Amino acid sequence: MFSDPLFVLVVIAVLAVLAILLMGISSFGKGGEANAKNSNKYMRWRIYAQGIAIVIILIFVFFRRTGG
């Protein structure tokens, strides 16, 4: 499975979403005005990254179902 470049791309996308999520949650936990602003920014980034990850996963599923 790890020899498939598209699968590796899916794993990287999911790990990127996880990393951004953890940065946002840790920023929420610290408190303060600056951290609240940063945590909202991280959560917006997470939404964008999650959308990209979903598209990559759908492409992966499409190619696996069609045998490509």
UniProtKB/TrEMBL annotation:
Keyword Cell membrane: no
Keyword annotations from UniProtKB, A to Z: Membrane, Transmembrane, Transmembrane helix
Pfam family name, one: HIG_1_N
Domain annotation HIG1: ranges: 1-68
Domain of life: Bacteria
Residue intervals passing through the bilayer: 6-25, 45-63
Record's protein name: Twin transmembrane helix small protein
Organism: Palleronia pontilimi
